[in-house]
């Protein structure tokens, strides 16, 4: 700052006093800011979490203290650094706490920065770094590439829970609303008049993600989103590690391939079943039964998205950061969801399913994909007809399906 020449006759007394006042305010502001941030270890929100009861800790971070310690142990090495400038190093535990509170609350970087006594840039760097560490270290364990063993287990669970044989999962996609990226034009502008990226996921009967694809631009037509997905390419190239086709329970003469079930936003394929269109179910009871049985299984993927947005409320508001960071946060949230579902199943407690019943804001920012039309192979039609025959047979029907269809649940 330039020195002030007090002996100058060109400055009036008022101008001189005003300049002194500005210097004083600037100095006070710097002192206040430094003092505020320097009290992070004693007055920051992370310090206060140590006083929480176990119940409040779980509500605050969306996981128990033991779960927090276990997640931290898996990613701590990737979060270590030597600090910078004259600032005191932020511990790896505090970095994880910042990330978990950010995704659990949906608060902005600025709000998290105020409560944890950190700068916005610091919060941004922490969120990006922890997201990457979570995915890099936890994905191979809790959201691995689908293998034959995983898909066979899902098929057994599907038969026991959904009464849907030869089924390895349910697929759905959601538009994740984002703030319009700079210089993006209409690249992310979707059919609901929002800017978004797409989260495409296959979910098993246990509400865990089996496969996710994150980052397709919201402007892409519904068909393009799935067409450009690696999952479809693996289906077409027979690289999905699906079990060999086999007969349906009680009707071994009906041999069908293993399939994934989806709604009208997806094409009918040999390994992907979608419901009959409305015009084919109005006066066709058999088709209504098929649609009901498929819908009953497919609801699990909707519930999984509901659990994800209930637990991590960042999904209840538009993401306001770079698209690359959004992708990382979504991926990290999905793998954390699987981790917590695994813990819930291990404890033989489905307490996290109660999250669905919480009162959520009216704004639901996970938007469904639109319906699609496209060419379908003859064999795909035949496979759907075989499932339809089975669900209407003595061996394949369930006792409550007639009542459900009669009240319009299809």
TrEMBL record:
The keyword Nucleus applies. Its cofactor is a divalent metal cation. Residues 171-338 form the DDE Tnp4 domain. Residues 54-132 form the DUF8040 domain. InterPro entries: DUF8040 (IPR058353), HARBI1-like (IPR045249), HARBI1_dom (IPR027806). Its main location: nucleus. One of its GO terms (cellular component) is nucleus. Keywords: Hydrolase, Metal-binding, Nuclease, Nucleus. Pfam families: DDE_Tnp_4, DUF8040. It comes from the Eukaryota. Coiled coil: none annotated. One of its GO terms (molecular function) is metal ion binding. It is found in: Nucleus. Belongs to the HARBI1 family. This is DDE Tnp4 domain-containing protein. It comes from Acanthoscelides obtectus.
